[in-house]
Structures are given as structure tokens and as C-alpha cells.
Structures
1.
Amino acid sequence: MYDVAIIGGGPGGYAAALYAHNFGLKVALVEKERVGGTCLIRGCIPAKTWLQAAHVFSVVKKSSEFGVNSSEPTVDWKVALDRKNNVVNGLVNGLSGLLKARDVDVINGYGSLKNRGVEVALSDGGTQHIEADNIILATGSVPRSIPGYEIDGERIVTSDHALDWEEQPHRVAVVGGGVIGCEFASLLSDFGSEVHIFEALDQLLPGMDPEAVKPLERALRKKKVKINTSTMVGPPELADGGVTINYGDGKSVEVDVVLMAVGRGPVTDNVGLEDTAAVVDRGFVEVDLATMQTAQEKLFAVGDIVAATPQLAHAGFAEGISAITFIATGEAAPVDYRAIPLVVYTHPEVAQVGMTEAQAAANGIDVVATSHGMRGVGRAIIQGEVGGTVKVVHETDGPIVGASVAGPGAGEMIHELMYTVAWEALPAEAAAYIHAHPTISEAIGETLLSASGRSLH
Ligand code: NAI
């Protein structure tokens, strides 16, 4: 008899399993593949490894601007792919070792809810019934497509396939200009591929601050990426030479491969939810956000399958921790969703925390926004990366409710603004602290000074 059985070994599930150790809980973790989930195996980690390779390539390409001459760099795709696999394998092995060290029983097979326990179709044959006081469902998500775009893994692909491309594709259409679409457009264009993005809404990264998205759009355009916003695509035409995409008013383009990046859907079919009291809405599981418990007592859901919370690995970690804390202590320890950062690892990076001006307005909150560009920031000039901006959004005469950063290191810098949002700091309180000079983070200091009514530069 286990205290907790977890179905799914991605960030939500494995964080719950690891954290349970703090309370001495006996845990079974059921996983049909290797542990790590989308994030480690076919998401965050491999994608960022490719982005890093693309970044290194683009830095070497422009090294002569810094007086460092080298021969024209070339891409050895196979080496980059091997490095990606090594990074992934190293982290998966490390995680397996950590789970073992924390006495988590990892059971390899397909798990589903049955008779208040978990029935596992074991990967090496047979079934095993696991009895547990509590069950956490953490089955994650898979890429979606749209009608007419049947995923064949070769010419119409998702990020699952793109991360394992054995050769560089030369002409790529990316359908969906959200996080995945922009990250792939960024890395492929750094490597010199021809890229066309088709986004249904009126800007890339819909929902993010338009001012923060602009430096990315500019950088992509500079790399000759064709950005088609407010654009729907017609059905693809597959021929020997490639795929033709029809779009807009009679326009078309031929590419070698189409990458679908139109969102990810929850994996909640065939896991036995229909025999429980849990409420499922369009595949997403509804939970009490204070405890992550579903409408069925002692059945919890965390990660990408949870309704109305972000599909982010770090949100999954936090939800796993929240569920385990409630199971172990009976006390609710809710995730603070107000201050979860979102980082898009494009070049330049775009990051955001809390509310944008538009979201504040939609919530009836009166706000003031203050921004500061990177053009005058010494370290940004030194690095040759001045395309960026910081924006801080605060209530009129009140605390900071949101912020965004675009530019070099945005994904790291956003965390200082995370604390200002979480701790409801006033701009003047946050501006009282001194940033080291020269740093890119000084742009945050400058923005906070201006937001508190006294600008410096
Ligand atoms: P997304 O929701 O970020 O973007 C999908 C985009 O496709 C949207 O902009 C949407 O307007 C557009 N779209 C939908 N249907 C369309 C159509 N028929 N034609 C043209 N455009 C269409 O989803 P994405 O990029 O697939 O990512 C899935 C999830 O994974 C997201 O929740 C994302 O936050 C997460 N993720 C997070 C990353 C990070 O934190 N760096 C990296 C990659 C994914």
C-alpha cells in the first residue's frame, strides 16, 4: 500500500514524487517511457539545447564585428543533434538516480485509474494493481494540429519530430506564432533556414506585451523570417518537391516541411477518469486550486492537464509540490499563479510576469506603465545586443502588478521583477536598491526609478 501513486513522470509527476520524500511518504511513480516527460525528453530541455547551438552559430558568424576573425562557420547538424541527445540523456539519468535515492518506486508501464487504485499495463508484459491512499494524475499534453494538417512526421510535423530532425530543413512553414512557433522560427533562422510564420491573431506571442514582442519581431525580420499575422492557412498541398501552403487572399508559398505549433492538448483519455467523480472539461481536469484535488476526494491533478492554469514545466513543479504538501499535512499550500514567469527563449529572449496593461484593463485595474529601452544600457552596447526593453506595470499610486523584459538575458532578469510582483512592491521601494554597473539589469533599475517618478538617464 502506497501513500501516493502518481501517473506520469514529467515535471508535475516527478516533482511530486521527489518532494514527497520530505514527508516520508511512500510513493509509486508510473511512467510508460523514460522519466522526464515532455520537458526533459521532447520539450524545454532539447528545444533550449537547439536554441543554444543556434545562438553559438550566430555569435561566431558575427565575431568579426568584435575584431575576432574566424573562417565562415558551418553547421554540423549531426553533432548538434548528438549534443542535444547527450544533454537530454544526462538529465534523464540524473533524474532516475535521484528518484531512486529518494526511494520512489518507478513502475514502467501504462497506468490508469481503477478500483480506487492504479492499474498498470507493464511495459515488459502483464499487469500490476497498485493500491494507494492518494493518486496524482500528471499525464501531460501532446501537440495539437488543425483540420487538413495530418501529422505524418516527415512533411507535416510537430515539435516532437522537429527536435529530432536529422538534417537541417531549408524551407519551413511554422503554423502558430506562439511560444513553440517563435522559438523554432528563431533557431531555424539563426541557422539560415528560410522561415514563414502563420499566426491567426494580430501579433506573435499573443497575450504577451506588444512592446516586449516588438524587438523579437524586428530580429526575426532582420533574419528574413516572413511573419504573417492575422493570417489563416488553407489546406496544404503535398507534392514531391514540397508542401504548398495557401494563405491570405490567394497567396501561396512552397516549403519543405510544415511545423505545427498551434497549442498542446491534455492527455486525459483512457486513464479511467470516466469512472471517477472528477470533472473534465474539453479534456482538462478541474481542480480546487488551493489543493490540486479534483471533485473526487484523494484524486489530484497537476501539470498540463489542469484546467485554467498555464502549461509550463515550472507551473507543473509547483502544482506537484502543492498537492504533496496537502496530502502530507492536510494544509492547503496553493501555487501563487499571480507571479509565474513566462520565458520565451528566442533570440532576443522575451519574458513576462504578472499582468500586462491589457490584462490589468480587462480586470478593471487602473495601471501606469513605464518602459526603458536597452539602447543606452552600457552592457547591452558592449554585447552588441541593444534590441530590447523593460516594462513595469503598476497600479496608479500602488504596487507593481506585472512586468516584461525583452533582450539579452531577459529570461534571467525577469526573476527580480517576479519578486516585486509577488511581494506587491511599490516602484519606489524596489527602486531603492542599486544595480551593479555595467549590467543589463540596470535597465530594470532605470525603469523602476522612472516608475517612481524620478528618472535618471
Ligand atoms: P501557444 O498557445 O503558445 O501558441 C499557439 C499559437 O497558435 C497561438 O498564437 C494561436 O493563436 C495560434 N494558432 C492557433 N490556431 C491557428 C491556426 N489555425 N492558424 C494560425 N495560428 C493558429 O502554443 P504552443 O506554442 O504550441 O505551445 C504549447 C504550450 O507549451 C504553451 O502553453 C506554451 O506556453 C508551452 N511552451 C512553453 C515554452 C516556454 O515556456 N519557453 C516553450 C514551448 C512551449
2.
Amino acid sequence: MSKKRIAILTSGGDCAGLNAAIRAAVHRAHRLGWETIGLINGTAGLLKDPAQYRTLTPNDMDSYVMRMGGTILGTTNKGNPFAFPMADGSTKDLSGKIIDGFRSLNVEGIIGIGGDGSFAILNRLAMQGGLKMVGIPKTIDNDIGMTETSVGFDTAVAVATEALDRLQPTAASHDRVMILEVMGRDAGHIALAAGIAGGADVILIPEVAYNLESVAAKIKEVKNTGRNFALIVVSEAVKTLDGGKLELEYMGGEKRYGGIGQYLSNKISDMTGSETRVTVLGHVQRGSQPTYNDRLLASAFGVKAVDLINEGKFGRMVAWSNRQVIDVAIEDAIKAYQQVDLNGTLVHTARALGISMGD
Ligand code: F6P
């Protein structure tokens, strides 16, 4: 009799630690007697005929895989199957085709490694098609609810902190105010964590309304202490003074946040008389080797996801809570979008250190 199978897919934007999660799931599955396959490019691989996948064996999953950024399976953050963009500009519901694709794989369980957007889609597909799914949360934005952290966040914060470490000496050498624009979509977790760890003077996040007078006052306060430079971290989703979103348009009309660093730079130099420069960190935050924390988290999540399938528990997302891996209802996690807690420890810490949050 052939072995029972698990399908693994990565979905949404990539981040560091995806391969570590895939590797852990494959090793655990094979120890429990399951076969594993990996979908190519997430659900996009199921729109091909035949469905695109590859077999994943422990031999393919040497420890080098864990060290690699990106995803060996490929991913997509476009093409919602319920409103799939067609060549003529219209959209079509291709959910039935994707569900058929999943069924053609003859799998007993699916591990979806994704963020909140991917989970919403995968969960809807699972409900509609009676698919048995377990989720592993990943996102540099750390905005998935019901888990303290997600795969990829730690690495993104490490990269942003290192960027501040590199900006500080050049800022000091040139008497400059350096603005670092970081990712995070509508949540300010990366900016807040890296800003504290990297010694920023000002941290601007979408959750806190700012005014430029406060930012300028902080820069002047720093200068009055005799220090000749300042560091500002700004989340990409921080709005303009009149509440506007700053976005850039890419191929196919896709819009992404971008431009707030430069917008602030000109205003801050006018108000403070300081020379400013802007660094937009962008996808560098996603692409590096995972930190040890992300490797541990991904490994624990990969193992737990397979354990859940092995126990016949579906519709669950693995999560991190109080130093343990737990599981929660995926539906609850999707609903519990997690922005920065303004009464939480990190905001308190930032303020207590004299860091301006711009308010
Ligand atoms: O959700 C992860 C993320 O990196 C966000 O922080 C960022 O806004 C977005 O994805 C960028 O998307 P793309 O890779 O499509 O440019």
C-alpha cells in the first residue's frame, strides 16, 4: 500500500526561514511514515495541467536548505484564485480549478506556509473544497494574530538593525540625519523593534499619528546635547501629514507602499537645517539567511504542523506562545490582525528611552 501524503506550499511574499520550515516538516513527516510533496509557486502550480509539484525527501533536505533564504518551492503574492486576473483585464473565479488540483495530488493533509492574506484564501479554498489544511505563520510584518511571532520577522529586524548600525557611523562622519524606511505593511513591528535595537532617536509607525514639530524638536534636542547626527526609522505605511497613503505602482497596476522616507526627509531638513539622507531597505529585509531564532521557530512550526496532521487535526495554525509552540483555529488567527500594541512593552521601552514616536 502506498504511503499517505502531505503537500507543502509557500504562499505570499517570501521571507527568511521558509526553507527551514519546509525542511522540518519533511523530516518529521518521514519519521512518522508520511510522504511529502511540495507545490511549485503555491496555488499557482495548481493552475497548470498537470499540477506542478515535486517530491520532497529527507535526502533533499540537508541542513544547507535551512540556511537558505527564499523558498525552494517558489511562491506568489498575486492571483487571488477567487478573482484571478485574466489577460484581458477581467477577473475570473478559478477556485474550482485549484481545488481540483489539490484533489489530484491525493494528499491527506496540506501545510500552507503563509501570511494573513494567504491564510484567508487557503482557508476559504479548504472550506469550499473540504480540504484538510494546517497553517504555518510567516511574515516579516509580524501582523498575524494569535501568535507572538511569525517566521521571517526576526531576520527582518536583524537586517534593519544592522542597517542602523551601518548608518550610524556615516551619519556621525557627515553630521547628518539618516532616515531608514522599513517594510512592515500596515504594522510598525519592524520599525519599532529595529529602532530600539539600533538606537534610533525617532521611530514613526502607522499606529501612532505624528507631527513634524515633535520630530524636529527631537532632532534639535539631540543636537543640543552636542551630538551631530540623528537616526530616524519610519515604517513604509506611515501616512503623509494630510493622511495620504504613499504608494508606488508596479507592473500590472500592483501598488506597494513607498516614498514616505523621502517625503519626510525634505520637510525635516527644512525645519531643522540638518542635512538628511534616506535609505529604503526594501526586499533586503526578506532575502537573507535566517537568524537562529527564525530557524528554531520554523523548525518547531514545521514539526508541529506535521504532528497536527498526524493527529487528524485540521483548520489549525501553529503559533508561538509563552516559549511553546501551540495551535489555534486558523479562522481566529485570520480575524485577529496584529498591529503594534500601544500599551505594550516595546512602545513603553521606546518612550522610556527618550525615543520620539513623533507624537
Ligand atoms: O508582506 C511582506 C511585504 O514585504 C511587506 O512588508 C511589503 O509591503 C510587501 O510585502 C512588498 O511586496 P512585494 O514583494 O510584492 O513588493
3.
Amino acid sequence: MRFDVFSIFPQYLAPLELSLIGKARKDGLLELNVHELREFTTDKHRSVDDTPYGGGAGMVMKPEPWAQALESIIDTAAETKPTLIVPSPAGEVFNQALAYELAEQEHLVFACGRYEGIDERVLEWAEEHFTVRPISLGDYVLNGGEVAVLAMVEAIGRLLPGVVGNPESLVEESHADGLLEYPVYTKPSTWRERDVPDVLLSGNHAKIAKYRKEQSLRRTSARRPELIEQMDATNLSKAERNTLWELGYAVVDHKVARRAAPGSTPTQD
Ligand code: 6GU
């Protein structure tokens, strides 16, 4: 897999030389090139922004440096269009399913905007050469796309074959099955008068799996109830259905729905 990142602050991407992603680059499991956008300007001041048409606060990124930058990496011999990811709080929300989808691509290009964003015509023009995907990390605003690219490259890169040493760690982690991961414990078995749950010391692997699944459901219901309602209930065990019932959900056909909102029972006063 090849990644290209364009930014006016290439040093922001330096952490991608560290840890698992850094090692994967050295091992040749992924290629990652960071480009300085200003290299693609032609004026004396190397300017990349200008005032917005229609008025308003802030500055907008000029189209021509972006076109020059993106054209510099177009491979006319490539069989498929690269995907151009435009980090933006106005994009579709990034999640684990999208990370898996993007990990299947051969070539991902990231265009880090700053200021109020990139002239919209760049995205329209780029459709000719790229599959364009404006993507957001979530419903809050960052100063630019660089931090979002750090997050996305790490989330996607770790899914590539060989990047994570033990691929089994990708199976049970949060969001792998649409739920949050169960709590984890290590030695000592008693710490500051707190015991590790007995079942985890029992050596009974079936019981442990059942316990962890239940914890996963309870934690997801408490922290991210909307994920419970998005669950596919096709293969739930009797025990899992019982836990869901206890948590206030009913399983109908292949779906999970809230039985009644807590406190929705009419009360007399
Ligand atoms: Cl991808 N970019 C910016 N600038 N802000 C964000 C974001 C992205 N995701 C959430 N906030």
C-alpha cells in the first residue's frame, strides 16, 4: 500500500516514523511519502491561501498549488484511480468499517487543508483522477487535517498484513464486531484490595468467552447505546439475549431495539 500526504506542515506527520507504522515503513510493508504543499507554488511568497469570495472570516486554500501537487503523483500507467482523502469536519465520519475498506486500496492520497478549507473546485476537478472522499474524525473542529491524517494512517496501516505482530489482536479489539472491548486485567490478581474477576482465573475458556461477551454488551450499552441498536442479532446466544433484555433491549427478528426509555413510564404525583 502506498500513502501520499500533502501538507503545509510536513513536520506534523513526523510521528509516522515511530512505533508500528514507522517499523512497517522500514520493513517495506507500506510506502509513505509526505510532501510540502508550498513546493508546488510558483510565486515569490509561496502563498497557498487567499480571501474567500462572498466574504466572511478566515482564508481559503488556493486551487492551483493543490492541482500542481496532486498532478505530481498521478500515475498514468496505474490501473485504478487512487483514493483522495480530504480530511474535513464536513466529511463522512471515519470508523473501523471505513478503515477496513480503505485498507483494501492500493494508493491513498491525503490532502490536508488548513484555514477555512480548500477551494471547492479542486475537489470537483480531482474526481477526474481520484476517488474523492471528504472524511471527518468526528463532530468537533481541528485546526487542520494533519492530526486527522495521523489517526487515519495509523488506523488503516495497522490493518495491513504484517504490520501488527499478532493478527489475533485485531479480532477481539473494540469495534471489530461492532461492540466495545471487554475490560482487561493483569497480575497481581489482588491489587489495593481489588480482585480480578474469579472467572478469569478459572482456566475455563468457554466460561471466560461467555463472561467477556457479557461485559462487552454491558459496557457498550452504558457508553455507546447506539451501537447496541445497530447490532446484527442473527447469531446471539440465549445468554446474550438475556443480558440484552436485562439492559432494557428486546431482540426482534435480526434486530435489537430498546424496550422502553428509562423513566418513560408515566408516574403519578
Ligand atoms: Cl478530518 N479535519 C478537521 N480540520 N477538523 C476535524 C476533522 C478533520 N475531523 C474532525 N474535526
